[in-house]
Design a protein that fits this description.
Strand content: under 5%
Largest sheet: none
Number of helices: 1
Structural class: mainly alpha
Order of helices and strands: H
Number of strands: 0
Radius of gyration: 28 Å
Distance between the termini: 84 Å
Shape: elongated
């Protein structure tokens, strides 16, 4: 192995490390948004649903009969 091979190996290793670090940074940057979305989903599922205007036990009019 000569110096060219060693240099290419070192550059490749640093490139892989930089790629992994960039991917981790992207995931960590989106983590607060994901946490907020998950909390909102949990909040919406925990709130009892109030009946809407069509919730009188009647089937919606489909216009077929």
């Amino acid at each position: 192995m000569n110096w060219d091979g060693i240099t290419i190996g070192i550059l490749a290793a640093f490139g892989c490390v930089m790629l992994v670090l960039a991917q981790i940074r992207e995931v960590l940057a989106k983590l607060p948004e994901l946490i907020r979305a998950w909390r909102r989903v949990r909040q919406e599922l925990a709130v009892p649903q109030t009946p809407g205007p069509d919730a009188h036990g009647n089937e919606p009019d489909t216009g077929t009969g």
